[in-house]
Design a protein that fits this description.
By secondary structure, the chain is of the alpha+beta class. The chain is built from 14 helices and twelve strands.
Amino acid sequence: MKKVNKDLLSIALLITLISGLHYFTLVGYWPIHDFYRRLYYLPIIIAAFKFRLKGGFITSLIVVLIYAPHLIFYFGEINIQVVNQFLELGMFMIVGMITGYLVEKDYHKRGLLEFQLIQLANLENYTYNILDSLNSGVIALDRSYNVPSTNKQALVFFNDSKEILPFLKKNNLVEELDKIFKGEAEQIESEVLLEQRDGSKQNLKIVAQPIKNIKGVKEGIVLLIEDITNIKELQLQVKRSERLSAIGQLASGIAHEVRNPLGIIKTISQTIEEDIKDLDTKEAIEIILHETDRANRVIQELLDFAKPYKYQVIKAPLGKQLLELLVLTNKYGEQRGVEIIVDIKDECIIEGDFDKLKQAFLNIVLNGIQAMEKGGELMITLEIVDQQLAMITFQDQGTGISMENLDKMFDPFYTTKDQGTGLGLSITHRIIEEHDGRIEVISEVGKGTRVKILLPIINKEEVDA
């Protein structure tokens, strides 16, 4: 507004100054008047540039109205010279209007261009916002496999865009992507493992598609990267549950069939033992009875594993149960040089059969202690994650578990110990699963094992109710 007022004042002063020069210069100095008259073009053109058509028209009209009386005053009559001067006044109007019209037209074109640039910038920002809001990583590659752009999620997977090409080469994806440029494939899908600097690993699903210009020419490739680690873990849980269920049903059938012959063997052996006097034979019979009892115990464990259990569900603080577990296992840990530490970061209420949960936790603690042959520290931590899950972490400093054995550790009868049935962790897995929880194991040979158990917690309002 201040600038407009300043421009109007400047134009008005110019018109006033030029008109003053005309009216106060003597009549006989016509060449000087002729010069002054041409000065009127300055305020007219300035007004046209500043205020476009309206400014050019109004200013030229004001000049005409101010200058016309001077002509009558100068010549004192209407003659051909006066007519010529009035024609020049018409030129004032024409110059003012033409200049104003051209400036107006240019102004509207610039306004339209600015509007289009704003629209384009808004569209570009909107597109970037959409890309940055995606949970999947989006990476654009040109034909030389340079990375012109990525979204935020892509930089969650890779700390720097310079890491992308080495990652593609390491996983033999460049050769696959070349097929898109060669026209041998329109889309490439692959699942790869990404190892982060902190040692954690992510399963990534990568979908590659061509980037085409308006003529349909392939200018690059866009990569859509999705973290499927959780999906893989859930698939593994489902497969493991199906396998355990099938094994449980099979074990139940076998156990019933084997138990009857064992009962007969035991009965006959006990009968024979009473009549035998030979010490060697008597010792052999005692071995038969001992092994029969051991076989019966294994069968009972199989039946316990296979049959459905009726849970005694209560609501109770989980941290308190873990402290009670410490009392049960502390002495055993001390005997083997293992210090058990329980860290309750967040106390929480869960619903479940705490006798069974203790059994599950006990199996994990005992395995952790036995894995530390030279002693060490077993850390048990309880904390709340995602506001709705209790996470119990068991971290030992034992020998660790190899990758090939990690997938088998919950299988029935699988054990690396000299003694034992291999059912302990299978039963643990079933108990956690039947409490709507899940169990995850991370281990590295020589560095120990971390077992994470996630269980749903109960809101405080539900407990109060």
